[in-house]
Amino acid sequence: MSQSFTGNYETDRFTIQLDDAQGEIVLGNGDAQPIAKSVNLFFKAGQLVGVTALAKNRKYDRLVSITPGPDVPYQYLARMIADDAVTAGVKLKADTATEKVPQNLVKPTRAYLDEVLPVLAFMGLHLVAPVVKKGW
Predict the structure, then answer these.
(1) Distance (Å, rounded) from C-alpha 52 to C-alpha 58?
(2) Is the pTM higher than 0.90?
């Protein structure tokens, strides 16, 4: 799979503009502020700790804001990410994403997410809970 993009790096953020009106991904540090009308993913040590909202007193060291293209409403993308993360064992705030994805938008939202996940993984950010190994 291949995805073309352009990018911009500033002192406190890295912006990836996806081709074909697919939106953008902004990676910021722990001081970064969430972007309105985007899916904001909060990470601590490379692991997801919040989607769109962050539980009280929870700290993060990376913020990824995904602004999808016009075909994928950000609320539904947030819900799909939150559902996938919870299914994979990530503990998130209960009311993280409340909008249920309408059936007619499941396929395009999943397709978009499948395009974005490799970019996040390449940056060392994962939407699954860490595997805990016991013993030696």
Answers:
(1) 13
(2) no
Q: Give residue 4's pLDDT.
A: 61
Output the six-digit token pair for 50: 């919040």
Write the CB contacts of 23 (distance below 8 Å, at least 6 apart in sequence).
Answer: 66, 67, 68, 69, 72
- The span from the CA of 112 to the CA of 10, in Å, is 26
Q: Which residues, 6+ apart, have CB-to-CB distance to 79 below 8 Å? A: 97, 98, 99, 100, 101
Tens digit of each residue's pLDDT (9 = 90 or more) over 29-43: 888 888 889 999 998
The tens digit of pLDDT for each residue in 77-122 reads 999 999 898 888 888 765 555 678 999 999 999 999 998 888 888 8
